[in-house]
Amino acid sequence: MAAVLLLYLFPPLTFLAGMFGLWRDSSHWRRYLPMCIYFLFIGAYSYEPDAFYNFDLIRYFPQIESYGSLSLGEALEYDVTSPAKSMLFWFFGSLQMKHMVPALTTATVYAVAGYITCDTAERYNGKQYIGWCFLIQLILLPYVSIINNIRNVFGLALVVLAVYLDIVKGKRNIFVYFCYLFGSLMHLSVVILVLFRLASFIGKNYFDLFMYGALFFAASVFKVYELRSLFAFGGSLGIAIQSIIIKLNAYLLDTTNSGAVKYLREGVFTSRTFIVVSVFLSLLVIRYAIRSKNRLFQDDKRLYAFAGMTALITITFHFFMLVPNYWRFAAALNVMVGIIYIPLLCGYKGLTVFPKLLFCASLAIVPIVLFFHAIAFLRSLYNSPTWPIDFLTTNYVTILFDLVQGIVNI
Description:
- The chain is mainly alpha-helical.
- It has one domain (12-408).
- The chain contains 23 helices and no strands.
- The chain has helices spanning 2-7, 11-24, 29-45, 55-67, 72-78, 83-94, 100-123, 130-140, 143-148, 152-167, 174-186, 191-203, 207-214, 217-226, 236-251, 258-266, 268-291, 301-320, 327-335, 338-346, 353-383, 387-392, 396-408.
- The longest helix has 31 residues, at 353-383.
- The chain is globular and about 60 Å long.
- The chain starts with a helix and ends with a helix.
- The relative contact order is 0.12.
């Protein structure tokens, strides 16, 4: 126990030990995965946002501080469309621990991704692929962007976890319902995944219908926007529906939005495009899995339908939205990418030529995405030069000290 506590004092060493364990001793992934997540948690906790690349976090940090001076009731009234965010901001704002918010949300996203991958590998007797698959997820999920994106990807990850536990593990307990509810209340767009969960009851039989329906996405948004006054009912529910419609309409082909200008100028849009190509190839594999008689894909067909609809919304948004907010749904799919890669790796030799080619093409995209994400990461280091130093001097002891200090100052 003393050796473990000593190891956790140095997060980079903890991460290396965790990744080594996932590769060499993957049967004990429950021991090694938390070590990797701890490293990502500490990195997010020690991160100081720069104004150019992380305007969301720049905006959220003062909000968290201001929430700390409010009562819980006042905090909930502050933003009726996102009560989960208000509760989170109020709790850590009261403790004067604003950095805990991105640390918690970032760690949750990667923990859900790792859990789904490891549990899927265990179910398919493919634990030898855990290390590689988790490494691919670390590449596909842009670390700095997820640190910055406190609300959306975090909420999506909670719903993805709930769907996995619900469909695959057959669990419908308080924790699962909490993930559904808290995730939905974190950001309005997360409700889309909850609707996909409901649609997955028929999705495995009518998946092509969703594919064709996605083609008419833009026209549907424009028409619904014209009729948005029809949704002026039900208090907060009506407000939430109207907000989603207004945001979707505003995002479509919006070249003047500051986010669109920034992403186009910096070339991050290109990396998102490659991610969407990977998502598209994964979608074709999913469609093959749904239609396939291969026994490897029989147990998780409803989950594939859910993943396929998530992929569809990502691809559809990419073609119609210049503002690249759709990457969040790509992140949601990459959180559960283990359900695609693990069965394919386990049954690769028995696959026909078409899914083999699709799978290889999807993997070929990963190094390209790594290149673009590495550039973005290095730019973040350039704009936040103290981050590596803060990272190396932060561990569970310093966080416990911050927590005690926050409790004393309440």
